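Figure S4 source data
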Amino acid sequence: MLVTTARRTQQQRRDQAESALINAAAELVVEEGVHSLTLARVGQRASYSRGLVTHYFGSKQALLQRLARATQTGFVPGLDGARPGLDRLLRLIDGYIGSLALLRMTNRAFLLLWAEAATAPDLGRIFRERDEAFRADLREDVMAGIADGAIRPDVAADDVAVAVLGQLRGIGLQRLVDAPAVDTERLRRSVTEHWRRALAS
């Protein structure tokens, strides 16, 4: 009996290689910091050539941009298709803190890069863009909640967005630094309930 193996398409091979390179970059950031990150070391860690890394990303800056996007995407599962509003905002808060219980390597890398962005101009530009996208989602939820009457009309959407983002990222960094001190199961309930009481009409 002849057994055939389905051949991967060029896109599948490209996706697999890019994923391996992103994971290798995340590992290097977590283990040694962003200054250890070079295209050559990423290729070596992922068992690819430096040339392939250069072909995919072109520069360390472009690699960092891709890493920042990849590590933030999917941090809170189950929100795709959810209608904007108070419910989605509370689900995001709950899910974000819950996901900190088992931080993947890529999520660790994102939080470390975000913290380092405060003193690194190149990273700062990348993470200002990522943070603004996150705040825009949070503002959309608040504005939708105000429009449908679930959130009080006197709530300032911009202020809530800044506060929620800061709180979530701050909890994440504390989890990295001192995991036993951050009880994610208790926090996800108390923080979500805090925002429910603070915002609900």
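Figure S5 source data
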Amino acid sequence: MSRALAVSWLLLPAALWAQDSVPRADSARAPFACEEQGLRDGAPFGCQLLARPTGMRFPAGPLFWHLVRYPSREAAQAAGRFTDILTEIATDDGPETWLHRFGVEADVPRGGAQTALVGPLPLPRARTYRIDVFHVVMPAGARTAAQMHPGPAAWYLLEGEQCVETRKEALRAAAGEGIVGPAAGAPLQVVNSGAGTLRALSVLIRDDARPRATPARWKPKGACDAPPPG
């Protein structure tokens, strides 16, 4: 099972841990809780905060999340910019090194063994932004509580299948694909819709002054439990 190994903001000081998180329910069948250090100490499932750079600014126009996997940390550093984010995840086969760039669609980092593009991301208005980058590992059948984010959340699936239920639709993706959640303030629920473990990289872009997530009164209708169309 994979778990977080190390993190830094490329060419800048390491990101700091913060304490805001999705509230944990008390029932025996509690929703999946994405705590910031949930994969430490060998935990098989949970979330791990990989990076949290602040004071971010973005170019004009539609914003995209570029992910590029490199064979080593040194290769990623050589290819990246000081505004890129570099993360590493431990796996049984060694560390996975990912470079994250947020920019226009054509601003693809050079080189790399694997490239992915997720977006566009619907940014809310803010003077400066904070980006939370998480490694998420969910067991089969797990789902989060209904919640709202103050900015766009997005996921890139490394393993398994995921469904995000919103008021309007069920957004689905499998390994090698991405999902962009609804605009800021819209409720959602994240579901592991596959038969095995779900493993993903997740980002949330938000105003520096806003908490990461708040509970939603909206009740999911179970759209992610229905078979996918066609």
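Helices lie at 73-79. The longest strand covers residues 129-138.
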